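Narrative summary of target 7.
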Amino acid sequence: MEFDDEISRRNLIKGAAGVIGVAALTAGGLGFISKAEAAKKTSAQKSSATLPWPYKKFTAAEIKEAGNIAHDNWFKGFCSYATLSGMVEILRRKVGEPYTSFPMELTTFAHGGTAGWGGTCGTLIGGGVAASLVAGPKIGEEINNEVISYYATTALPIFVPDHPKAQIKSQNTSDSPLCHLSVGKWMKKEGVGFLSPQQMERCARLSADMSMKTIELLNLWADGKFKPTTKAPFMANQIPSQNDCTECHGSNIPQTSGPFGTGLSLLEKGH
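Modeled conformation, tokenized:
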């Protein structure tokens, strides 16, 4: 018992000495963590817990760079991750923390309309996260609403990357924020199937378009010039929805060709 007590006493003294030593080194500026570094870490932790985060406007060249980043990153983590990364990767360089520590991978679940379920396009989820980080939840939602409207009413994709993975010839207006309708219409027009090189290139370019549009609106917000103009079709069918359900459902399901069979719809294959 006396031996055990002596060991415990020695360990306690060593532990206390270690804590005191680290504290002394930190206070003296000679340790692994200086006062400045400790303060910087504390500041980063506080700022990361509070929205909005710091923002520096993007130049025209940086917006294009964001588009190329988003395009290339689609092939690493798909649409939501790609759209978010277009903004965050550049802000890591321009601002630093808290963007440096932000885990962009958290949005990869939203690929294919959320885990492949064909719901809201993941580019809009990634863009919404980006807008909320910078402008806060309320304004971020207003900005995301404008991006959704742009997505649904514009012939896309527009962006042409520096390093395309495939050549595509078609643009398409989805009239919907839904993944399965947007990509289904485009594949029918292009004459290709899901997971074809053309479909993947299209979605990569679409990610770039949404990243760049989100940044353009954030730049307006930073200048105090952002004014929301779009209202979501709330309660369109006595529930939060759109008015174009019959455009795709029933006999109007887009028929596509490709890896799952010529003329076979994605919904019939469970994708």
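The helical segments are 2-28, 35-48, 60-94, 122-153, 179-190, 197-222.
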